[in-house]
Amino acid sequence: MRRHRSTGTTKRVRLATTGIAALSLALGLLTAAPASTAAPAAGPGSYPEVTSAPPEAKLPPAGDNGPQSYTVKADSAQVKQIFALGVDRHETKATKAADGKAELEVILSDAQVAKLRAAGIAVEAKSQAQNRSAAPAAAGVFRKYSGPGGLGAELVQLAKDHPDIAKTVSIGKTVLGQDILAVKVTKNVRTSPDGSKPAVLYMSNQHAREWITPEMTRRLLHHYVDGYGTDAEATQLVADNELWFVISANPDGYDWTFQTGQRLWRKNLRDNNGDGVITAGDGVDLNRNFDYKWGYDNEGSSPDPLNETYRGPAPSSEPETRAIEGFAGHIKAKFVVNYHSAAQLILYGVGSQVATPSPDDEIMVALAGDDAHPAVADYDPDLSAELYVTNGDTDGQMNEAYKTLSFTPEMSTCATAAGYLPDDPYTVENCGSIFGFPNDETLVGMEYAKNQAFAVSVAKSAKDPDDPISSVGRKAPDLIADRFEHSYAEDRDDQTVAVIAKRSLTNRKLNYRVNGGPAKTAGVKEWKGGKRYGEQGSAYYAEYRGDIKKVRTGDRIEVWFTGDKAGTGKVESDRFTFTVESGIAEKTETLVLANEDYKGVNPTYPPNTVGPKYAQQYVDALAANGIKAAVYDVDRLGAPHHLGVLSHFKGVFWYLGDNRLTTDAARENTDVQGDIYQDAQVTPLVQDLTVNVRDYLNEGGKLAYLGETAGYYGPLRSAAGGGIYYGLNGHPDQPCKVTVDPTSDCLIVSDDFTQYWLGAFDRSATNGASGVVGSAAPFEGIDKPLPGTASNPLNEAGGFLPTSSILTPDKFPMFDSRSVATYSGNTSGPYTPAEGKWYINGLHTDNAYKRLTRTIDLTGVTAADAAKLTAQFSYDTERAWDHAIVEAHTVGAEDWTTLPDLNGNSTTKPPTSCEGGDLVATHPQLKHYLTVTTPKCLSTGTTGSWNAFTGNSGGWKPVAFDLSAYAGKKIEVSIAYVSDANTGGTGLFVDDTKVVTAAGVRDAEAFETGLGPWVLAGPPPGDQALVGFSRSQAAFGTSVIATDDTLLVGFGLEQLATAEDRKVFMDRMLRELYK
Question: Which Gene3D superfamilies match (predicted)?
Answer without folding.
Answer: Zn peptidases (3.40.630.10)
